[in-house]
Design goal:
Strand content: under 5%
Number of strands: 0
CATH architecture: Up-down Bundle
Bound molecules: fe (ii) ion
Number of helices: 15
CATH topology: Ferritin
Number of domains: 1
Shape: globular
Largest sheet: none
Radius of gyration: 20 Å
Length: 307
């Protein structure tokens, strides 16, 4: 993996996912299992959640750094097309949903939790001098686990068009990983205080990418489907070892710990995780309290026509 990263080159080269030549017509000609479909919905939702994640970051002290904000501007745009294209593939496979409604519903279902978390991230960042070290390390883990997850889904599904699409997305995720990893390394090198804070936060506060938007059981279902075999476990151990190369993080266990946690919960309850996949629970319920229009302030077509 090419680990060098130049922000200037990234700014010049950042562009939306190149989908030229993807055989979209072939999507429905190859099967996808319930587990594949579950993972694709999870992944799409988390890709589409990036702007809200960004909203958390933009209020932190990390964003006083213009290199970081330049990265985030491009990164956010690239991630948009990951979500869009996974959605397109699902639609072409024959699963009907309106992307905009789905995204709005995921966000609305978070309710107050989202605002509270924005405020606490902001406050935390100003109290913690080395907030950036923690955030950059988490960025590295998230990008690396995302691309590892895509690799595992390519392997599990055996679907040629999905393989083509995800391989292209993986290239973007690799660049994102390189940025976060190198930036975290720079921040942590020779900075023992930052290393201690980072390790403490990762051991105690870190959760796998998507958790919070998704429930523990959904996170576990994904882990069990993609990684609960010899190769999967091996990949997660390798992932942890890569993150462990950051100064102060030697021997850290993150994704492998998440897999073992999922296994333990599944041992206590054999239906754990798998029942979500079996029942095809990938639809997102509309928000219970207020219709989307109330939250976004956007008028419905009827309202717009009559005013
Ligand atoms: Fe992505
Ligand atoms: Fe990414």
């Amino acid at each position: 993996m090419d680990m060098s990263f130049s922000i200037e080159r990234y700014k010049e080269e950042s562009r939306k996912l190149d989908i030229a030549g993807i055989e979209w017509d072939e999507v429905a000609s190859h099967p996808l299992s319930k587990g594949d479909l579950f993972c694709l919905h999870y992944m799409m939702d988390i890709e589409n959640h990036v702007p809200l994640y960004l909203s958390h970051l933009l209020v932190t002290r990390a964003c006083m750094d213009p290199i970081l904000t330049a990265f985030l501007a491009c990164w956010n745009y690239e991630e948009l097309w990951h979500g869009e294209n996974i959605g397109r593939l699902l639609n072409l496979f024959g699963i009907e949903f309106d992307t905009q409604d789905r995204i709005a519903n995921v966000r609305a279902n978070l309710g107050l939790k989202n605002s509270v978390s924005v405020i606490s991230t902001m406050a935390g960042s100003w109290m913690l001098k080395d907030f950036s070290a923690v955030y950059l390390s988490i960025g590295a883990i998230n990008e690396l686990s995302t691309l590892t997850g895509y690799g595992a889904l390519i392997r599990k599904s055996g679907h040629p068009v999905l393989k083509d699409l995800l391989s292209r997305i993986i290239k973007d995720e690799r660049r994102h990983f390189a940025f976060y990893f190198n930036s975290a390394k720079e921040w942590l090198s020779g900075n023992e205080r930052a290393q201690r804070v980072d390790r403490w936060m990762l051991d105690r506060v870190w959760v796998p990418v998507g958790q919070g938007v998704k429930t523990q059981e959904e996170v576990d279902a994904l882990a069990l489907y993609l990684f609960d075999d010899e190769q999967g476990e091996e990949e997660l151990l390798e992932l942890d070892a890569k993150i462990g190369k950051l100064p102060g993080l030697a021997g850290i266990k993150l994704m492998s710990k998440a897999l073992y946690g999922a296994r333990e919960r599944a041992r206590r309850d054999p239906h754990w995780g798998w029942r979500i996949i079996e029942r095809e629970q990938w639809a997102i319920a509309p928000p219970r309290k207020s219709p989307i229009g109330h939250l976004t302030g956007r008028r419905t077509e009827v309202e717009a026509a009559t005013s």
